């Protein structure tokens, strides 16, 4: 609930005095290619468990004006943002939270009232919260396990940035390894986070030889698509992952990828090597939970969370 308390730094609650949401309201997902999104399924289950009369809609658009038009509707309670809008829609909002600024991307929008009662829209990033909560719920000792030890992120895109933020902010590692197909992407990440999170320590793993010399990370977060490596950079990145995962020490591995199936090749390699694995679908559920905490201003029901996890396992299995 820490994200809820900090949200009031941006203003007071826009909800009625009653803690229950009684007036029908709407929430939206804005993205460029979202017809197969699992978010409507999960949010529907979580809203139902909370007895909140909120409808969750897909809005396939990359137009900022369309986005703002929906936010102006008095029945809009909040929004989710996905690719390719996570960076471009941020400047359209009134405020950005620490997480959104440090990561450089927005995936969640919520409102608070200013001193004269005007709605202000705040952008934040709950992808990082989803990563944190999925790990902590799965392995409560993970913070102690990771403290002053290396962790690793696979990939160099937006999800990797959320993982880097989550690792450094909440797990206190000694440093963060990055395995990625392109050094140039990692160079940009290091430059960005050196500015947004002073003191952060990030190490790029350029080749297999370097990977063999490094201590095993306690936590690995995968953020790359689940397809066979084809380019030289992709093959080297995969070899680095295999070398590190197949060591005897083990640890916790999260793969944020869940399409077309949550049973990714990275997870399968880790399971065979004895790692404690967390599927991307579990992270997605926790992201949705964090969003609803900000929208409804109360904790999610555990029975709703369990139902959402079960539903997404069934949905994911149907894709196999």
UniProtKB/TrEMBL annotation:
<dbReference type="GO" id="GO:0009423">
    <property type="term" value="P:chorismate biosynthetic process"/>
</dbReference>
<dbReference type="InterPro" id="IPR036291">
    <property type="entry name" value="NAD(P)-bd_dom_sf"/>
</dbReference>
<feature type="domain" description="Shikimate dehydrogenase substrate binding N-terminal">
    <location>
        <begin position="29"/>
        <end position="109"/>
    </location>
</feature>
<protein>
    <recommendedName>
        <fullName>Shikimate dehydrogenase substrate binding N-terminal domain-containing protein</fullName>
    </recommendedName>
</protein>
<dbReference type="Pfam" id="PF08501">
    <property type="entry name" value="Shikimate_dh_N"/>
</dbReference>
<dbReference type="GO" id="GO:0019632">
    <property type="term" value="P:shikimate metabolic process"/>
</dbReference>
<dbReference type="InterPro" id="IPR046346">
    <property type="entry name" value="Aminoacid_DH-like_N_sf"/>
</dbReference>
<dbReference type="InterPro" id="IPR022893">
    <property type="entry name" value="Shikimate_DH_fam"/>
</dbReference>
<dbReference type="GO" id="GO:0004764">
    <property type="term" value="F:shikimate 3-dehydrogenase (NADP+) activity"/>
</dbReference>
<dbReference type="InterPro" id="IPR013708">
    <property type="entry name" value="Shikimate_DH-bd_N"/>
</dbReference>
């Amino acid at each position: 609930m820490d994200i809820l308390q900090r949200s009031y730094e941006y203003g007071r609650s826009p909800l009625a005095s009653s803690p229950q949401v009684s007036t029908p309201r709407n929430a939206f997902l804005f993205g460029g290619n979202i017809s197969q999104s699992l978010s409507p399924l999960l949010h529907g289950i979580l809203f139902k468990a909370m007895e909140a009369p909120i409808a969750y809609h897909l809005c396939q658009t990359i137009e900022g004006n369309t986005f703002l038009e929906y936010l102006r509707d008095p029945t809009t309670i909040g929004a989710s943002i996905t690719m390719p809008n996570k960076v471009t829609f941020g400047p359209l909002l009134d405020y950005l939270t620490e997480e959104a600024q440090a990561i450089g991307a927005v995936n969640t929008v919520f409102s608070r009232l200013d001193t004269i009662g005007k709605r202000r829209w705040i952008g934040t990033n709950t992808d990082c919260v989803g990563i944190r909560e999925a790990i902590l719920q799965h392995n409560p000792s993970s913070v102690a396990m990771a403290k002053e030890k290396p962790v690793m992120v696979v990939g160099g895109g937006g999800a990797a940035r959320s993982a880097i933020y989550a690792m450094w902010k909440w797990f206190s590692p000694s440093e963060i390894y990055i395995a990625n197909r392109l050094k140039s992407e990692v160079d940009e990440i290091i430059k960005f986070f050196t500015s947004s999170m002073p003191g952060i320590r990030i190490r790029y793993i350029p080749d297999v030889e370097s990977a063999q010399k490094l201590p095993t990370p306690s936590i690995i977060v995968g953020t790359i698509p689940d397809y066979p490596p084809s380019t030289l950079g992709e093959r080297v990145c995969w070899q680095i992952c295999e070398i590190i995962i197949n060591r005897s020490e083990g640890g916790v591995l999260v793969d944020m990828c869940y399409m077309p199936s949550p049973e990714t090749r990275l997870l399968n390699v880790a399971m065979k090597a004895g790692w404690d694995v967390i599927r991307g679908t579990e992270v997605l559920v926790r992201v949705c939970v964090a969003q609803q905490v900000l929208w409804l201003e109360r904790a999610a029901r555990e029975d709703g969370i369990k139902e959402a996890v079960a539903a997404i396992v069934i949905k994911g299995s149907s894709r196999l």
